[in-house]
Write a structure and sequence with these properties.
CATH architecture: Up-down Bundle
Shape: elongated
Strand content: under 5%
Low-confidence stretches: 1-43
Distance between the termini: 59 Å
Number of helices: 10
Mean pLDDT: 85
Order of helices and strands: HHHHHHHHHH
Number of strands: 0
Helix content: 55-70%
Number of domains: 1
Radius of gyration: 22 Å
Bound molecules: zinc ion
Structural class: mainly alpha
Length: about 325
């Protein structure tokens, strides 16, 4: 639990100052044992630069400063309310989680139609799981190497669940009257998702240099959704619901693809290292694009429900 980073004493002896103005007075006395309660309450945890990070926290060399490094869990949780380079990453997906929770509650309180709701709920739950795991990972991974390892696995599992469950409404409602295609597509994507989670358990999977491999794995999984969507358009091209849902799915795909590109290329911080440490770096843009994509998909889900409530087998 004890921080290995140098904790600097505040001139006023106060407690838990805002890390955004974390003390930089390197000459101050340091606490040798911050695990002692008397010590813990008298010292703040300062933000550090990229070069001072242990290897497991080095993910983006274009972000130069405002890192938390090996903070105790309590300080890491409290840091949700202070400014560092993960604050906006935490809040974008936490707010996104509550947004989807509200959408789920509004759907569940609406009048129940004739067709099964579970594929749509599975999709909403997949999105909420992804957003919550991501937010927790950004908040707490700075604690230790073990925490980083476990939380990144949960984060990858969350991304996988978002992708896999986003297939469920598309496939289930489109092929409501075609059990063979429905079972084939649902089985295929579920097995792919399980394989992706298994691969992500390998320690090497989180290596920063494998950024493109990770991006490609998730992108390929998402891209396999093109097959049932093309199949849908071949069979139901005359149905306005099929065209409308495909429109939303194309919008979703564009948002997700943009997110993957931003994530993998680390634009814009690669052009101005250090400029976007707090606001505007690629991971924040990636988070917003994920929420936008999931929101477009939510609208597709509503169209599927109204289509299949009216028109069954
Ligand atoms: Zn993230």
């Amino acid at each position: 639990m004890a921080s290995k980073t140098a904790a600097t004493i505040r001139s006023d002896g106060g407690v838990h100052a805002d890390q955004s103005v974390a003390s930089k007075n390197k000459g101050s006395p340091t606490c040798g044992d911050v695990a002692k309660p008397s010590c813990e309450h008298r010292y703040d945890y300062e933000l550090v630069g990229y070069d001072a990070l242990p290897a497991f926290l080095k993910h983006d060399e274009f972000m130069l400063d405002h890192y938390r490094s090996e903070w105790p869990v309590k300080q890491a949780i409290l840091s949700a309310f202070t400014l560092h380079n993960e604050t906006i990453n935490v809040w974008t997906h936490l707010i996104g989680f509550f947004m989807f929770l509200a959408l789920t509650m509004s759907v569940s309180s609406a009048e129940h139609g004739r067709v099964a709701r579970w594929p749509f709920y599975a999709c909403l739950c997949g999105a909420m799981f992804c957003l919550l795991m991501s937010s927790g990972c950004h908040l707490l991974a700075c604690h230790s190497e073990r925490a980083t390892y476990v939380l990144l696995r949960l984060d990858y599992a969350g991304i996988t669940s978002l992708i896999v469950t986003s297939f469920y409404p598309v496939v289930y409602y489109t092929f409501l009257c075609d059990p063979f295609s429905r079972t084939l597509y649902l089985g295929f994507i579920t097995i792919c998702g399980a394989a992706a989670v298994a691969v992500s358990l390998l320690p090497v999977f989180q290596a920063p240099e494998l950024r493109w491999t990770r991006a490609a794995l998730f992108a390929c999984m998402g891209a396999s959704g093109i097959v049932p969507i093309v199949h849908k358009m071949l069979v139901f091209s005359a149905r306005p619901e099929a065209v409308l849902t495909t429109g939303y799915e194309v919008v979703m795909g564009v948002f997700y693809l943009a997110g993957v590109l931003v994530y993998a290329t680390r634009v814009p911080e690669r052009f101005m290292p250090g400029m976007f440490d707090l606001v505007g770096h690629s991971h924040q843009l990636f988070h917003l694009l994920v929420i936008a994509g999931a929101y477009a998909h939510y609208h597709a889900g509503l169209v599927y429900l109204s289509w299949r409530d009216r028109d069954q087998c």
